Structure formats: structure tokens, C-alpha cells
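INFO batch 0412 | record 1 of 1 | parsing
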Amino acid sequence: MELMSQGYLLLLLLLVPYIIWYVRYRKKSEPTMRMSDTQAYKNAPKSWRIRLIHLPMVLRCLAFTALVIALARPQTYDPWDTKQVEGIDIMLAMDISTSMLAEDVNPNRIEVAKDVALDFISDRPNDNIGLTIFAGEAFTQCPPTTDHTSLINILRSVRTDLTTNGLIEDGTAVGMGLSNAVSRLKDSKTKSKVVILLTDGSNNRGDISPMTAAEIAKNFGIRVYTIGFGTNGITRYPIQINGTTQYINARGDIDYKTLQDIAVSTNGNFYRATSKAELQKIYEDIDKLEKTKLMSRSYAQRYEAYAPFVVAALILLLIEIILRISVLRRIP
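INFO prediction complete | emitting C-alpha cells
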């Protein structure tokens, strides 16, 4: 607790003359009765009323003290909490083309990629994390934020039906996805800026090539971790034909060479994953690599704490009045 107006404590000095007056002059103001001899009352036992005769004065002093403390504005607050936390700025760039519905992993690539990314986000509460999705086009689903609850809800709602419903062009615009993610990090003031790019194809759409986007990332000091997810063999995935779902077999076409070049040019790492366990291991490795020590200071809001002292003063005064007019009442 801290007193914000400590000057009011000087009022407590008024208690000194009051106590002196009470000790020295109280008896002069009290009614007296003359007796020829008080020797007979010298050894008489004192009643409890006599023993408590000074209690009202003590209660008045305590009440006055409580009121003065209330005037001094006592406040409570939590002390500064200084600690080291680990935080960086991260953009997840995720492929949502129709090939991400391939079922070489259970239930399909897009759901597995989302599940692993959700765990990654949950394990890094101090990071600013955002989300870019891309197919034949790219756009930001969520800019970097520490509101991970909102980010997780957005990521869970990601579907490949944006392409199947014709809302965006199908295909794989790796360069556009990467450049979009870079645009969200380029003005960041943190020392560590990272893009985690996941795709299961090769660049076949967009106006920006993957290596051009990688060069832009490098110029802004952004590391890119690239992940080629899925197999390059024959895979089964669903397509919509006349409102019905049919399955076709198609060969994967992941451009590992370009993904590796992107990672090397930006001082990142390239990974390959053909299962959920491998993808989880990749995110765990990235989690270990990207650790930055930051100083975090936090404090709670101050709260006025005068009310208990006011209440205490009123209670003390009330007790003093009750005692003075009842059990400790004096007859003039």
C-alpha cells in the first residue's frame, strides 16, 4: 500500500495536544464531591467500568487516525513484474489449393497442416503471429497479432472451397503467398521476423516469382522456413463435378528445388514432410530455432484503498458514542 497525499499525516500531530489536555485538565472539568476522608475507599476494588473509563478517548484517537489515513489517499497496486519472455513476429503462409485435399495423410493435407499450425500457435503465446493463405492468388487472413484466440478461430475456418467455389483462382502462387506475408512483416521493429511457408505444389500462378519474393524477404531481414508437404507420387483427392464429389488420382508436383533456394537465400531452412508426425517435428524444430529474449514489464492498475479506513473510523466513533451514553455514562 502507498499513500499518495502524505502531507495529511501531519494532522496526526494534533493528537499530541489533545492527549496532553486529556491527561492534565480532564479532571478539572469533571464534577466533584467533597468528602471529609477517602481513606475508606483507598483499597476498594475497581469495577470494570472504572477500568474502561479511558476507552472512549482511545477510540476517538483511533477514529481520528483512520480518517487522516483516508485523507492521505492510500492505494494498493501490484508491483512491477519484470521478466524475460521469448517473442518474435511470424507469418504463416499456407497453401489452400485444391491439391491440399489430397488424402495421402489422414484426413487430408489441409486439415493436418491446420492442426499442426494450431499447436504451434498455442505453444508461442508471446509471439505476434499472422496468417496468409494462397492458391492462384494470395491474401492476408490475419495480420500479426498476439490475440491468438482470434487467430486460431480464423485458421480453423480456412477451407479450400475458396478455389472450388470460384472465389479465388486455383493454382499455386508461391511467390505471391510469400510476398504477401513479407509485406506484413517488413515494417516490424522486432529483431527476428520469420515466414513459415507451406505448400504441396510448384509455382504456376502469380506476377511475382518465388525467388523475387525471397529476395524481397532477404532485404527486409526476414527468414523464410519452407515446407514441402505431401508426396510426389500418385495421390487421391476429391473434386466436385456437377455438384457431386468424385475422386481422382493425380501425381504430386512439389518443387523442392525452389523451396530450398528460398530458404537458403533468406538464411532459413527447407523441410520435407509426408506425414503429420514429420510435420509436427518440423514445427518443433522451428520453435527451437526461433527464440528471442525480450524484457517484459507489466503492472496492475492502482486501486483506491481509503474506504476501509473511513468505515473503520465510523465504526470506532459509533462504538465510542454508544459506550459514552450507555455503560460508561457519567452522571453530572
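INFO post-check: The CA atoms of residues 211 and 261 lie 8 Å apart.
INFO record closed
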